[in-house]
């Protein structure tokens, strides 16, 4: 062979060797490094079934489970594997049409990608789940996945427990990818606040599929499976029987009840009205029930105990007395001559008591809730000669209020708490152009003007009075399972806040004696419990609202705060019943029953009719009927403007006033109809309800 031919032969060999090496390298890259086809093969032959963990259980103070877990099923889909599914058969089982089917598939692709499972139909009814289980082999790409869901055996504590729901894109983004589509997370209440404790850890079970997409067993005998780790349990201060009683008493009313242990800050009960059954937000009908409650103008989802802000009314007066005593502007013998009004300012402050001597000293003034006395005390506090200006006196008063836990969030272990309002110099400077004095806001002395607080703040302020200067941040959870030093969630609730312990005990004794007189022979004798020394204060707060452009004077809010026993306080209670009249009418009996139940673990037989009377009374303001009508009709109008669909709006507007674009296209052309403005259309004078009470839109 010539040298030339040998050289060409070697070159050809080298070319083939190079091609062979490239093929080997590419095979190594595909099979070992990238593993793409191995993954595709695995996806065709193996189904990764997510095992959702049981969430932790929440117990009351006597170790009774307030909520528990049960199993339901979700229908999940992997869009890229569902191309050959029996679409019509699945739609027939689910009761949907193909348009809805295609919409859900597109949503699944958009939310979670074509290769990852997404929920197609969640929390299936048992009958539907059984039918799908029999036919799932007909639907490649679909599978049934177990889902632990909550059940509430006591049907109570909805606002405290909160609810769980599927993680949306915002939650997933904020978690840095920790959550996936299909994960359930706490959306409110303790479920949300202690999510990391309750959630547990997901597991995965790998199952083999046959050529008909049927699951036929474990892959590699479960070698690669990871078990789900259940969440940790919470142990709380809640007394579930006390909680049920509080919810029963606030039924048919707008308001809230809060009971806490002043020695620990542990919340024993927290009820908000209107209430709802927590089981309505679990199971297959949860979305329908949630939507219904969102559209209710009475806001049953709102926890008024931490989100409702109210003028505290006369329940502020014990705080005002302590401030005045500590500042040295009054003493226990201080009094005022009151004949039914305070005339120290151009603004007359009326008092309900007219008889001589009811405000002869501090103790009597607290017992009989004299507005004149406490208006004068507030002015003396602001105009304290020691500070030489009302501005400095106002700053000092604001500091006291903040120490009592008002004007800022307390830090309860629930999301969405609001802080109420303690007015300061900046608010009055803005409104009165820096030209104001103690008479400008004199009604703060009786808990009105711009001063507002939540029921939880009122209860916590009473805890400070009961403890003679200190408090623990109110909270529900006492501890949780397997708590370690790395768990920091509970640390802030175990810190003692000595905010007003510099005030001598004998000063607190003076105020507590007056508060005990409120129950013994003052404005709250109805709250008296034999054998128990209770310190309390009634309160009322005036209300107005605007409806249909009219200012409406409403009934006062009924307020009551108390603690007992005086010698060794074990419970503090705050009750607000909106637009229900005097504090002794509704709020005081409710608080008294809660105290008696907690301290004696029973209710006297003679008080059972009182429970029946209160629980069956519906005193939700009548004007809500009108407000609901207006709100629904405006929603209908907006829907009509967007869609020209008149079915919804027909309930609220006479037929002759409805015009649609379709009518304009129908020959012969109809005579033009002049529509009144939406506001005029929606108002029906015959639908005005009684206006004895209302909400003031302070939820």
TrEMBL record:
It holds the Pfam family PBP_dimer. GO terms for molecular function: penicillin binding; peptidoglycan L,D-transpeptidase activity; serine-type D-Ala-D-Ala carboxypeptidase activity. GO terms for biological process: cell wall organization; peptidoglycan biosynthetic process; proteolysis; regulation of cell shape. It is a single-pass membrane protein. Its main location: membrane. This is Penicillin-binding protein 2. Residues 52-218 form the Penicillin-binding protein dimerisation domain. Signal peptide: none annotated. It comes from Niastella yeongjuensis. The chain crosses the membrane at residues 12-33. It is found in: Cell membrane; Membrane.
